[in-house]
Write a structure and sequence with these properties.
By secondary structure, this protein is an alpha+beta fold. The protein is built from 25 helices and 19 strands. Strands 2-1-6-3-4-5 form a six-stranded mixed β-sheet, with helices on both faces. The chain has a six-stranded mixed β-sheet with strand order 8-7-12-9-10-11, sandwiched between helices. The two termini are 43 Å apart. It binds iron/sulfur cluster.
């Protein structure tokens, strides 16, 4: 008997129309857990670096995390893994909502898609019955609209639908997969789904999940729930509201946006808007939110209500999450009414709310600076808001200049030439757009930005506070009930962190301390991504209910794989290293591991190199960021070492473009 997991994957060959139910090896779960961990193993084994994003041999894997579908509060993440058309590296975007538990209840841990369907189709999974169905009548439909139409067509109002909009169908490099109350957005995974000819994956399950030791597991779940109630009633004092409690950033509840709107450079802007947040704006935005927000909502089995249904005037209702509230608004220098309105169109089209406004602002900056001409924008309205709507429409249809912009700022700049690359100034890992710029260099953020491979904003934040508290007595109060730390030394790091003087940013925390902190933060994100836990209850907030001390108990009592902190840490390190190995094999090298040049006002080149050197050594990677032989053998990844040797990877510093490493070639996929 398998516990927590079902022990079966669905393998679907879209070219042949073949569907198989395949038993999985429990040994793989023990080594790599589930979700991202086993996805990475499959991608390593079956998708060599010669396979491009839009090749039929690329896989698109929808995985439910190991503990999804169990009673653990907030454990509902679907991890979608593929090769990204944008970065040519591994994309492993996540979505909340209801889809992953439903897949478990249907009897599967993953849906693995390969090949390409000759016509547009959707997949209908209802317990043991799995069908590939015609979706040609859904071509061009919005992602949310598609979900509604399919549920009506199947007469299955409780089916969960992960769908793409027009952007995915047209292979826009920042197309998302939308799903009820969430979306998987980074890396253009929706474009891969569109390329495979799949409009939606629809699931309804009615089976049970088994637990290894149910009474013990329920006790753990109850403890986590009690803690959630306690934290909700007792926000952490001294930090901004979205960090004081739990959940994904509570952007749908927070009205005071002074800090976010004034302290970041949004979209393609090169300025902060000091003085933006006036009393009048505060009043207007609050009114807009109150008028358009119809309901606060949660994902499966969670009381946190982080999302909201939004009904903009004259448009249909959609679900808004996280920072999309601000990305369009700020990139267009407009107001919240515009931001909430255009986000509805963007959700139906299915585009990433971070990249899309960035790309549109980039296009307008090129126009302002004479690199693109008025002729490139025939019929574009004069006003900023109108221009954003016009551009969004052209991009998702790949019409005119929209066809170039649909590949994101990096590839668009290459195609446009004439110095356009100077305006693609907010990219990370060379090709993926960031939604904003920060101010003072924070060494912890520097490392998370440089070396993180998910390229998601919540992935660069974690359980260590983002800034020091002004007074020591406040810091002492903070560490008193900080039981989540993996080691007491983190308390001392924080106690000694001062806003000014010797122990302040950027030289404190020291590079060695930063390695410990970043490694802790990253470890928790990777564990969440394998278990299917929402980062908002574990790796993202400051004092969460799930942490390194109780996770091994959840895995042991839930899935029946006996784990302690050490073995869990080791498993997470194993698949984190495997993710790095996949990207190393695809050409990722040290030169790609840097934030945008003007991401911070002031840079510290020597310190930054020292940070990177120290962190690479800490992780057991060489000076190019490649896992060493010793590291790989220690983790039982001998097969990775053998492949690296065979391909001459240790002698490749990434200076020479190689046809065998798509991330290094500049041709479009
Ligand atoms: S904390 Fe928020 S985002 Fe996370 S599962 Fe709960 S409702 Fe969803």
């Amino acid at each position: 008997m398998r516990y927590a997991e079902t022990g079966y994957n669905l393998e679907i060959d879209l070219t042949r129309g073949n569907i198989e139910r395949v038993a999985t090896d429990p040994k793989d779960t023990e080594l790599y857990l589930g979700g991202l961990g086993t996805n990475a193993k499959i991608m390593w084994d079956r998708v060599p670096p010669e396979v491009e994003a839009f090749s039929p041999d690329n896989l698109l894997i929808f995985a439910a995390g190991l503990l999804c579908g169990t009673p653990a509060t907030g454990c509902n993440r679907t991890i979608v893994t593929t090769i990204s058309p944008q970065t040519r590296l591994l994309a492993f975007s996540m979505m909340g909502g209801f889809w992953a538990p439903e897949l478990k209840y249907a009897g599967y841990d993953k849906v693995i898609l390969r090949g390409k369907s000759p016509d547009l189709v959707y997949l209908w999974i209802k317990d043991d019955k799995v069908e590939i169905r015609d979706a040609t009548h859904l071509r061009g439909k919005g992602a949310v609209e598609t979900a509604k139409l399919i549920c009506q067509e199947l007469k299955e109002p409780r089916a969960q639908v992960a769908a793409i909009g027009m952007a995915g169908e047209n292979r826009v490099y920042f197309a998302s997969i939308e799903q009820g109350r969430s979306s998987a957005s980074r890396g253009g995974i929706g474009a891969v789904m569109g390329d495979k000819g799949v409009k939606a994956v629809v699931v309804r399950g009615t089976k049970d999940i088994h637990l290894a030791r149910p009474a013990e597991y329920m006790q753990l779940c109850n403890e986590a729930m009690e803690y959630i109630k306690f934290r909700n009633a007792n926000p952490i004092p001294g930090v901004m509201p979205i960090l004081a409690g739990l959940g994904s950033p509570q952007e749908m509840k927070v009205h005071d946006e002074k800090w976010h709107t004034e302290n970041f450079m949004w979209g393609n802007s090169r300025e902060r808007r000091k003085g933006f947040w006036t009393e009048e704006i505060a009043r207007e935005w609050m009114q807009t939110m109150e008028d358009m927000r119809t309901r606060l909502i949660s994902c499966y089995n969670c009381p946190m209500t982080c999302g909201a249904t939004i009904c903009p005037t004259g448009k249909s209702t959609y679900m808004m999450k996280c920072f999309t509230k601000l990305t369009y608004t700020m990139a267009a220098f407009s107001d919240l009414e515009f931001g909430l309105g255009i986000a509805q169109s963007a959700t139906e089209y299915g585009v990433d709310g971070f990249s899309a406004p960035q790309v549109m602002a980039f296009a307008l900056e090129l126009l302002e600076n004479g690199i693109l001409k008025e002729d490139d924008f025939p019929g574009m309205p004069e006003d900023n808001e109108g221009r954003f709507y016009w551009l969004l429409d052209r991009i998702v249809r790949r019409e005119g200049i929209g066809d170039v912009l649909a590949n994101g700022t990096y590839w668009a700049a290459k195609a446009i030439g004439k110095g356009a690359d100077a305006y693609a100034h907010n990219n990370i890992k060379k090709t993926e757009q960031l939604p904003l710029k920060l101010s003072m260099l924070n060494p912890i953020y520097f490392l998370m930005y440089c070396t993180g491979e998910k390229i998601n904003i919540t992935q660069i934040e974690g359980q260590f506070p983002q800034a020091p508290y002004p007074k020591r007595e406040h810091r002492e109060a903070f560490v008193k009930d900080w039981f989540q730390v993996p080691d007491e030394k983190f308390k001392q790091y924080f106690l000694d962190w001062e806003p000014r003087g010797e122990n302040s940013i950027p030289y404190y925390p020291t590079p060695e301390m930063c390695c410990d902190i970043v490694d802790w933060q990253e470890r928790m994100h990777y564990i969440d991504d394998a278990l299917g836990m929402c980062a908002g209850l574990s790796s993202f907030p400051l004092k969460p209910p799930y942490h390194i001390h109780n996770y091994p108990k959840f895995i042991s009592a839930g899935a029946g794989y006996e784990m302690d902190e050490e073995s869990l840490t080791r498993a997470a390190r194993r698949y984190r290293t495997l993710v790095r190995a996949i990207n190393t094999r695809r050409g990722l090298r040290r030169k790609d591991e840097k934030p945008p040049a003007d991401h911070w006002k002031k840079r510290f080149p020597e310190l930054e190199q020292q940070l990177l050197d120290t962190y690479y050594t800490f992780k057991g990677w060489n000076t190019q960021g490649i896992p060493t032989e010793e590291t790989l053998r220690d983790l039982g990844l001998d097969y990775v070492y053998d492949e690296f040797e065979k391909r001459g990877i240790y002698s490749d510093n990434g200076d020479t473009a190689s046809l065998s490493t798509p991330a290094e070639t500049d041709k479009e996929v």
